[in-house]
Design a protein that fits this description.
Oligomer: single chain
Number of helices: 9
Strand content: 5-15%
Low-confidence stretches: none
Shape: globular
Radius of gyration: 18 Å
Number of strands: 6
Helix content: 40-55%
Strand order of the largest sheet: 2-1-5-6
Amino acid sequence: MTQPVRIDVVSDVVCPWCFIGKKRLEQAIAMQPGIPVEVHYRPYFLNDWIPREGISRVDYLTTKFGGVDRYKEIAGRVQAAAAAEGLVYDADNIKSQPNTTDAHRLIRWAGGIGKAAAMKQRLMDLYFTEGADLTNKAVLVQAAADVGLDPEDIRAALDSDQDVEAVTQEAESAKEAGIHGVPMFIFGGRFAVSGAQSPEYLAEAIARTAQAENGPTD
């Protein structure tokens, strides 16, 4: 039995290249049908300075990029890259910039029923495509329900501090380990690939890791 290749994906739900990188990783996995994989999503705070209640998108773009107009060129490049992967990045529809602690808590809880990837995708679609406010509890509860979590349980958990410290510590540990750009793909704890690389590049990393862990195949 071939040992599954573990892929740790360090990323944030409000990182557009993480949105694109997730799709490219899925394509890479499909390119290697003979290699089983286990994907684990790890939290990262792209903007750890944003308060839990979030801020307006205009304030965010002004603080980080110097203004809305200065971001338009970047947004255009990201929109084109997303579209090439069949994704919709609607920058003009995004009105708020959330703190992503609660989003990462949802992904963690969804992992308990094997739905971490689905939860992450739903949150990214809500944010990048639908312009939803990821600090809005009703939005988060509905997103959780969409992937099969119990909405009442999630509502109560969001009202508590459950896993806030665990998510925060894991996100901070990533930066302490030297990860300053996401997405970061770590293959079998052996190979680290930074950025939303092509599916072909990621597929090769999967193959290299499988060979290193299981030996060459005939």
